Amino acid sequence: MVRTLDRAMLVRARQVAQSVPDPELPMLTVADLGILRDVSVTGTRVVVSLTPTFSGCPAIAEIRADVASRLGAAGFADVEVRTVLSPPWTSDFISPEGRRKLAEAGIAPPRSRSESGGDPVPLTLTAAGPRVDCPVCGSADTARTAAFSGTACKDLYRCRACGEPFEHVKEI
Amino acid sequence: MGFDTAYEAITEESDSGHRWAFGTGFTDPLAGVDTSVPAGVDGADLATYCLMLGDDALIMSHRLQQWLARAPELEEETAIANIALDLLGQARLLLSRAGMADGSKRTEDDYAFDRTEREFRNVRLAEVADADFAGLVARLLVFSTWRLALLVRLRESADPVLAAVAAQGVKELTYHRDYAAQWVIRLGDGTGYSRQRMEAGLAAVAPLVAELFVPSAVEERLAGVAVDAAQVRAEFDAVLAQVLAEAGLDWPEVAGLAGVAGQAGRDGVHTEAMGYLLAELQSVARAMPGATW
Fold first, then answer.
1. Residue B3 pLDDT
2. Interface-testing mutation among A55, A155, A169, with chain B (most B C-beta atoms within 10 A)
3. Are both A6 and A79 inside the same structural domain?
C-alpha cells in the first residue's frame, strides 16, 4: 500500500517537473531539453536534479524557481532542486520530441555530436560551421552567418534557397 | 507545458517573482553539488587555485563586457557578450568552489566585490584594456588557447568539482578560440592596414604571455588536482603557430613584462589597469553594501 502511494507520488512529481518550460526555448520543456536529470521522492520530500546547458546559463535560476513553485502548487511542500555538473550537458541530451518541436518552431535542431573533445581539441579556422538543413524549406543550401546568437546554445544561419534567416542549436 | 513564443512565457502568471529578472539574490551555482574536499588535498590550496582560475575568468569577462555597445558589428557584439557570459559562468562556479574548499563559506559576491586588488589572483593578461578590436582578438586568442589547454587537462583533476567545471568549459572555450583565431586570420590576411593593426595587437599582448607558464607553488602542492602551467606551453605554441601561419603573421619576440620583486598577477601584483577595472566592477557593491535589486 505504502509502496503504491510512493509510486503514485513519484509519477505525479515527475509529471510536474517534466512540464516546466525552458525560459529561453519556451517551446521545449526541461525534459525535452535534457536538463532534467532525475526526480526522486523520499517520504514527502521531492528532489529534482538539473544540469545547466552552459556554465553561464542565466536561465537556470529561473528554472529552479519555476520547478519549486510548480511542485509547490501541485501539493509538494518539501522540494529541493539540486545542480548536477557531471556529466556536462550535451546537445545529444535533447529528446527526439524536443528536436521535432525545435524544427516546428523554425529552429534547426542539433545533429548528433561527432565524437571529438580529444587532446588537444582541434582548431577550426574557417567560419563555415557545420552543414545544417533549413528548418523552413528543407534545403541543404545554407550558410552560417554567426557562431554566436541571442542565447549561448544557438548560432545563426541563412538559407540561400528560401532566403530565410534561422537559428540552429549548436552541437556541443 | 510549452509556449509558442517567448512572449507568451514572459506574460505567464508566476508567483515565484523570479521570472526574467536577473539581479542579485542568485542561488548558489553549486547548490546540491558535493563540495567536500577530496582526501589528502589541502582546502586552502584548493581555494587559492580556484581563485586563480576563477579570477582569470571574472576579470577577462569584465573586460569583454566593456566592449558591449562598442563592437564594430552586431554579430561581433553578440559573440563577445556570449564569450563574456560563458567566462562569467565559469567564474561563478570557481569562486563558489573556493569558498566551500577553505571552509570560509564566502560566496561568489564576497570574492568578486569585497576583495582588494592585492587579493586578486588573475594573470595580468586578463586585466589589460584593448586598444582596438584587433587588440581584443589577439588577447582573446592567447587567453582562450592557454585556458583551453589548461581545462582539457583539468578534466582529469582529482577534485570532481574542478573536473566538472573544466569538462563544460572545454566546450565553451573551443568556440572562443575558434572565434578569435578566425578574426586574427581575417585581419592578418586582409588589407595592408588591417594587417598593421593586427600586428600592433599581437605586439601589445606578447609581453604578457611568459607569465602564463610560470608554475606556482600552489600548483606544485596540488599535483593531481591542479595543472602545472608550464606543461601547456608546447600545445599553446603549436596552436599559435598554426593560426599565425594561416594569417601570414609573425609572433613578435619580446621580453616578458617584468613583475615587482619577482611577483606578478598570481601573487596579487597587477598592472595599473587593474585598479581602474575593479573600481568599476565593484562600484555599486561598495557604494551600497548589501544592496539588492
1. 56
2. A55
3. yes
Yes or no: say if B230 and B215 are a contact pair by the CB < 8 Å rule. Answer: yes
Contact residues, chain B, for A121 at CB < 8 Å: 148, 152, 170, 174
pLDDT given for residue B25 in this prediction? 53
Q: Which domain holds residue A145?
A: 105-112+128-169
Give CA–CA dist A60/B165, Å, rounded.
Answer: 16
Mutate to test the interface with B, among A15, A64, A123 (most CBs of B within 10 A): A123
Verify whether the Cβ–Cβ distance B1 to A58 is below 8 Å. no
Residues of chain B with pLDDT under 70: 1-26, 293
What cell numbers appear for B228 in the block?
602545472
Whether B243 sits inside 8 A of A127 (CB atoms) is no
- A147 is a domain residue: yes
Residue A29: give its domain's CATH number: 3.30.300.130
In a domain, A97, yes or no: no
> Within 10 A of A160 (CB to CB), how many other CB atoms are there?
12
> Domain count of chain A?
2
pLDDT along chain A (172 residues), means of 10: 75 94 91 95 91 85 88 92 91 95 94 62 82 92 91 91 94 88
Residues 6 or more apart from A51 whose CB is under 8 A from it? A35, A37, A83, A84, A85, A88, A89
Q: B79 to chain A: which residues are within 8 Å by CB?
A: 146-148
| A8 and A70 in a common domain | yes
Which site among A46, A91, A121, A170 would you substitute to test the B interface, given the most B Cβ atoms closer than 10 Å to its Cβ?
Answer: A121
pTM: 0.91
Looking at the fold, whether A141 and A69 belong to one and the same domain comes out as: no
In a domain, A117, yes or no: no
pLDDT at A128: 80
What residues in A contact B177, CB-CB < 8 Å? 123
For residue range B45-74, list pLDDT tens digits in order: 999 999 999 999 999 999 999 999 988 888
Q: What chain A residue is nearest to B177 in terms of C-alpha separation?
A: A123
Q: What are the backbone angles phi and psi of residue B263, rounded to the nearest 5°?
A: -105, 145
In a domain, A41, yes or no: yes
- pLDDT value at position B18? 46
Q: How many CB pairs under 8 A join A and B?
A: 163
Q: Looking at the structure, do residues A70 and A136 belong to the same domain, yes or no?
A: no
Q: Which CATH number does the domain B36-251+269-286 belong to among 1.20.1260.10, 2.60.40.10, 3.40.50.720, 3.30.70.120?
A: 1.20.1260.10
Complex prediction ipTM? 0.89
Chain A residues whose CB is inside 8 A of the B179 CB are: 147-148
Q: Residues 6 or more apart from B36 whose CB is under 8 A from it?
A: none
Burial of B259 (0-12, 13-18, 19+ CB in 10 A): middle
| Contact: A58, B85; criterion CB under 8 Å | yes
